[in-house]
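Hi everyone,

Forwarding the result from last night's run.
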Amino acid sequence: MYLFIHRKDLRSHDLRAFDYLRKRDEAGIHLLIIDPSLTRGERLNSHSGRNFLEQTAALIQSYAEAGKELHVLHGDPEAIVDALLAAHPIDEVVVHADYSPYSRRRDERLQQLIRARERRWMTLLDSSLADLVEFHAFARREEPYKVFTPFYRMWLSFIRQCYSPMGSTSIADLATVRDIGKSIATGFGLPEPVAERIGGTMQAGGADKSADLLESFVRERLSAYPEQRDAYGDEQTSGISRYLNTGALSARQAYEMTDGLPGSEAWVRQLAWRDFYLYQAMYHEQYFRYEHDIDLSSLSGRHFEAWASAATGIPIIDAAMTQLRRTGEMPNRLRMVTAMFLTKNLLCPFTLGEQHFRLHLSDYDNTLNRGGWLWSSSLGYDAAPYFRIMNPVLQSQRHDADGGYIRRWLPHLAHLSDKNIHLPQGNAIVDLKASRARAIEVYKTILK
């Protein structure tokens, strides 16, 4: 018997683990663990928490529709796995790899437990489009890539020559164990608020939502994606990141449905950026340690609350932060603009913004969120140069010329002309020109 644990792979098909498990030709326990750290405090009702539980509900439905059993338990992963190993003849625990600091610590503890019980631990790569271990060997480099452009060129060569397509196994092809024992099921049962949240998101066809959204994007917007992806209207982007980042949709499916179509080159480049950040997390320990290794004491959180509460007096910044607070969404370019404004013009440490996005972004992913913040704050590998500071007014004028985005999220400014609606208001907390000059001097010192 095997134990398979779902993590950032909340789907019931095209999983590397499913192809592996099918070869075993035996029944196994399929499990999703709701870690208390994901539901305590603000996390349960945050946009990111709600999205995770919504995808959990869809996964439960997928299993049920296939006549299979997914056990969803709540508690410390080590305690749950220990109880299952003690109660069942499990000889192998199978998971997909994750390289965030928390995931590494969790998996180290699980491996120690499993070795102590003389069982096998199998980790498979699944979240990236390219197999990044095979890619690194393919590149024949002594040191991992630190710059995106050479990474991207080699990545494209790898994809063309060595790409491994979607898997053919679905949950319908596997046998799942229905009874794990009453004491385990009740001892690690879901708290009522979590169970209610999951039950409240159950809906017909919920498991197909991500695929339908991808198909709609390919049919209606992919061809215009290279020209329109920086526009601020939600309808211009794919909208699938919340599904990619929970694994409800695989990067392989996103790639295969678009490959070779008009507009796909720009789209695939975004998938490459996603792989680049995952690669950093795998091969560079400093990726999650920059705030400990670099002196950020010249920065402060003085203006953070104004930024977070959409009270900066810079219309495009306040519009974007309002959208984020209300919906959990924000166009990708505005994520860069707001992040750079916080870290450069307001001289706040990037960690404050990173933590804010963690709660408020529906599509939050630790690795990808950090990559964006490091880039915007001129830290990390291949980040924006310290002297590159996006002017939010110019960005607003260029990508939302008629001010429609601002009018939507800040209706009290709707009466302003197309020219004036982009300009700083009288209550603006910083002067853009002066704060830019100050940021250049400060970051020159930080990065010297």
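The CA atoms of residues 84 and 180 lie 8 Å apart.

Cheers,
N.
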